[in-house]
Amino acid sequence: MKIFLLTLLLTGPLVFKTGNAQLSNREGVTIPTLEINLYARAMNGTMFLADGILQNFNNNFSSTVDNMDVRKFMNSTDNLAIKNGLYNLIVERRPMICITDTLRLMLTRTRIAPYRFEIDPSVISNTPLKSFLKDKYLGTETPVSMSAVTNINFNITADPLSRAADRFMIVYRNIEPVRFTAVTALRNRNSTITTVFKTENENNINTYTIQKSNDGITYETMGEQMPTANNFGNPYYNYTDFNAALSEQWYRIKANTISGETIFSMPVKADKAPGKTMDGLTVFPNPVTNGVVNIALAEQPFGLYKLQILNTAGQTVYAETLNVQTDKMRRTVMVSGMKNGIYRLLLTDANGKKTVKTIIAK
């Protein structure tokens, strides 16, 4: 008769069964736990629970074998154990998982048959690491979830190497906070530019910073985007530059992680606005009479513009801020006390680019 002992730090009773071990009230697990069950195929073709191991993680535990760990008693067939130095364990209590950790499995007294690992994590989904089951015999690495059960099938064959006791191990690697899978910057019909960026494996992100450049070298911050899928999701975002210059523009995304790391996307370029220049500004009629100045803006980038009318002495006789939100905009201004003579109308866009028109007043 085989008795497999699994000991847990759980809120709830522990259950023992002849021929296997099972846990009741797994929903009561309160500390990080990794359980690995070994299933084997019986003579009738069904899979049965043959053995199992368990790890509890807490920084109060020791990485060396002590009285908090449970040593393995070998079965006549199908043994799964944790290898820690000279000891084989069925329960190991150790500090929290880190990048240097490796869970070395010992698989002994197996038969030529199909097997399956059932890897069941609890309360460890927030680890900043990826885990993989490494199979030395097949030379493969299979991802292991830290938030859901992972089932991995394998076979013991007539090849002695397939029965090597140290065939399997679980290794850990750092998780990238995010990976940019696509970034585009497209010029819209109204000359604004929309930047779209797609991400993969989003986690540990504080904010995204959208940056733009006039030359592709020097970048300035344009805006921020909060993450929406900070749970290893694959979201996409878009951000529109309503004050885009008419010339070629470059954009990039800066991911700011909670831990202080920064990750940049590749820069992308948006084409210049076709056929749209500040010559879309007209004054009519010109000459003007009675101080009435009619201004028309056609197909200009949306945003704020500073309008000034100056006399020949360089003095401002009129000023206001225009908020352009349409492809065709007209504005009539009254210049009080406008005398006959020559004036300059100065229009400055959000990027500081200036357009000057000469006005003759009669």
Task: Describe the fold and architecture.
With about 350 residues, the chain is mainly β. The chain is built from no helices and 28 strands. It has strands spanning about 15, 20-25, 35-40, 45-55, 70, 80-85, 85-95, 100-110, 115-120, 130-135, 140-145, 150-155, 170-175, 180-185, 195-200, 205-215, 220-225, 235-240, 250-255, 260-265, 270, 280-285, 290-300, 305-310, 315-325, 330-335, 340-350, 355-360. Strands 3, 4, 5, 6, 7, 8, 9, 10, 11, 12 and 13 form an eleven-stranded mixed β-sheet that branches. Strands 16, 17, 19, 20 and 21 form a five-stranded antiparallel β-sheet that branches. A four-stranded antiparallel β-sheet has the order 25-24-27-28, with no helix packed on it. It is rod-shaped, with a radius of gyration of 35 Å. The termini are far apart.
Supply database-style keywords.
mainly beta; disordered N terminus; rod-shaped; 362 residues
Helix content: under 10%
Q: Nearest-angstrom radius of gyration?
A: 35 Å
Structural class: mainly beta
Q: Which regions are unreliable across 5 or more consecutive residues at pLDDT < 50?
A: 1-25
List the helices and strands in order.
EEEEEEEEEEEEEEEEEEEEEEEEEEEE
How many H/I helical runs?
0
Reconstruct the topology from this structure.
Blueprint: E1 14-17, E2 20-23, E3 33-41, E4 47-57, E5 70-71, E6 79-84, E7 87-94, E8 102-108, E9 113-122, E10 129-135, E11 140-144, E12 150-156, E13 168-174, E14 179-187, E15 193-200, E16 205-213, E17 220-225, E18 236-241, E19 249-257, E20 262-264, E21 268-270, E22 281-284, E23 292-298, E24 303-310, E25 316-324, E26 328-334, E27 341-348, E28 354-361
Parallel strand pairs: 4-7
Antiparallel strand pairs: 1-2, 3-4, 3-9, 5-7, 6-7, 6-8, 8-13, 9-12, 10-11, 10-13, 14-15, 15-18, 16-17, 16-19, 19-20, 19-21, 22-23, 23-26, 24-25, 24-27, 27-28
